[in-house]
Amino acid sequence: MKIAVFSDTHLGFDEKGERYSESFENLGQAIKIALQGEADFCVLCGDIFDAPVPSHNVLYRAIESFSLAKSGSSAASFVLEKNSEKKALQISGLPLITIHGNHEFRGKETKTALDVLNLSGMIVYLHAGKIIAEKGNERVCVFGLGAVPEKRALDVLHQWNPVPEKGACNLLLLHQTFKEFIVIDDEMVATLSLDDLPEGFDLIVNGHLHWANEQKLRETTFLLAGSTIATSIKKLECKTPKGVFFFDSASKELSFTPFPRQRKMFYHKVLLDSASQENILGECRSAIESDLREKQEMKPLIRINLKGTLKKGLSSADIDLKEITEAYSGRAFLSVSKNFLADSFRKKISELRELQKSRLSIVAMGFDILEKNLKETDFGGAFDLKAIFDLLAEDELEKALEKVSHS
Length: 407
Ligand SMILES: [Mn+2]
Prior knowledge:
Elements: E1 2-6, H1 22-36, E2 41-45, H2 56-66, E3 77-82, E4 85-89, E5 96-99, H3 113-119, E6 124-125, E7 129-135, E8 138-144, H4 150-160, E9 169-174, E10 203-206, E11 213-217, E12 220-224, E13 243-248, E14 254-258, E15 265-275, H5 277-292, E16 301-310, H6 322-328, E17 333-341, H7 343-357, H8 362-365, H9 367-375, H10 385-393, H11 397-406
Parallel strand pairs: 1-2, 2-5, 5-6, 8-9, 9-10, 10-12, 15-16, 16-17
Antiparallel strand pairs: 1-13, 3-4, 3-7, 7-8, 11-12, 13-14
Manganese (II) ion (MN) binds near residues 8, 101, 208 and 227.
């Protein structure tokens, strides 16, 4: 069987803004690609909607886009198996099997937009269960677990314990963070690591992380499906186009079809030393101009991450980027972040060092106080506080400063 894979459609993204139609158009492109590729069914790995409670306008447009799948069909039959009960599914059109993401995670008793779409026959909503697709003598088992709070993810996965079927092709759908893909080691952010994944699956697809990535874990192919729309611009995401993966359950091969129409993304990290307002505007302008050189069908997304230090006497708040944002607003979606290393922060760090010298333990001072001190600087949440705290506690001032300036 041929299975189309995509994820994180974030329907309704930018509801009040200029990009409002993009999430629906991209879902439409994904379904058309799946139909043209003669997929037997599609799997979607969560964050179907951008908001936990989508507006009626969003729901309307979502149904309009999902209806495109009704012009298709599937020669396969589908059975849902959950809590040791079996139920044959009557599906019209090209079947779309989905799990929920963190964006639509709500209390057990609360119905979500996915329940509504499931009842209306637009999608098949799967959570902690399994769907068996059969066509001829081929059998594909799709196991799906919707997003759970990261802190509980490892326990929930162990408890649920999906067991692949012998002789069938086995897929597992998840929507979680994995430690291997993030910088911060914190159980609030991730408890799952790739090593925790159950064995025996042919394909494990994860949503949530918006860039596409494919790797082999022993006999399993692990796929980050990526999102169908860029909701925030990450460096990794700019390198992979948006589109649909196809998995062939017989050959176990994966292929990718990009959307014919998609918005280009550009990411720049600009490192400056003693920068002035003029320097900064100049750097931004040249980055943007080089991105705009190539003619784009759609207004591109450009993100500029400013780093390094400012000229003496200047602080981030003094840097006015209005001139740039206004000049290019018609030609690009621009987002510029100022993450300069502030003098006041250097001062705070050396004050902390003095405290340490006076034999007042920084550990005793506590992480909370450090956090409070840092809040008074321009830093906000620009770096991993706990890591800085640990380095300071170990008297590693240079390393702490280095981490701050490179975060
Ligand atoms: Mn998402």
